[in-house]
Design goal:
The protein is 29% helix and 24% strand. With 195 residues, the protein is of the alpha/beta class. The two termini are 25 Å apart. The mean pLDDT is 95.
């Protein structure tokens, strides 16, 4: 059953929406800032029966970007529940790096899970190269801070940094079908390999 919670994080009002599911969790911390990430988390979670948690700032013209490491579990009961429920987190983010307009960066603390997702992305959307080598990922996109929610589930997780064209279609926040399909395949594989 879908549940919502109104929270305030660093003075910024947000709505957290949790859809309980399996022990794999899809997380979109910046659903209003990083177009397509909220929609992608919802779509992939529903296809896989995974748990999803999405943060948005409804009705705000210029959403505030609160850094991931500051969106800790003590601010939000639904985030605590999400982290208790899931084993592995797949946290979806967006980047706008002009030097990597088609690259998907896979950071976070669970490197084995990052490689599983990279294989699925390589098979499904080879036009978006997936980088798993932390040294090759820009520091701000690595997702390795110990307070980042992607690293707080029992087995940690993968911070998926998607360029604009991998998370939106034209001027809409509808994720491209092939990206959705590839991430779905990767999350299903994570579900099969989770203990």
């Amino acid at each position: 059953m879908t549940r919502t919670e109104h929270v305030e994080i660093e003075g910024t009002p947000m709505v957290a929406t949790l859809v309980p599911g399996s022990a794999i969790g899809l997380l979109a911390l910046h659903g209003s800032n990083e177009g397509g990430t909220a929609q992608l988390a919802d779509l992939v979670a529903r296809r896989c029966g995974a748990t999803s948690l999405v943060f948005t700032q409804p009705g705000v013209r210029r959403p505030v970007h609160v850094p991931s490491a500051r969106m800790a579990a003590d601010h939000c009961a639904l985030l605590r529940e999400f982290l208790e429920r899931v084993l592995v987190t797949v946290s979806l983010h967006g980047h706008m790096r002009p030097d990597a307009p088609h690259t998907i960066f896979l950071g976070g603390g669970n490197r084995a899970a990052a490689r599983v997702l990279a294989e699925a992305l390589a098979a499904g959307v080879p036009r978006f190269p997936a980088v798993t080598d932390l040294a090759a990922i820009p520091p701000a996109l690595r997702g390795v801070h110990p307070r980042n929610p992607v690293n707080l589930s029992r087995l940690g997780g993968v911070q998926v940094e998607l360029p604009l064209t991998a998370r939106t279609s034209g001027s809409t926040d509808v994720p491209p079908g092939p990206v959705t399909d590839a991430l779905t395949a990767g999350v299903k594989e994570l579900s099969r390999s989770a203990p």
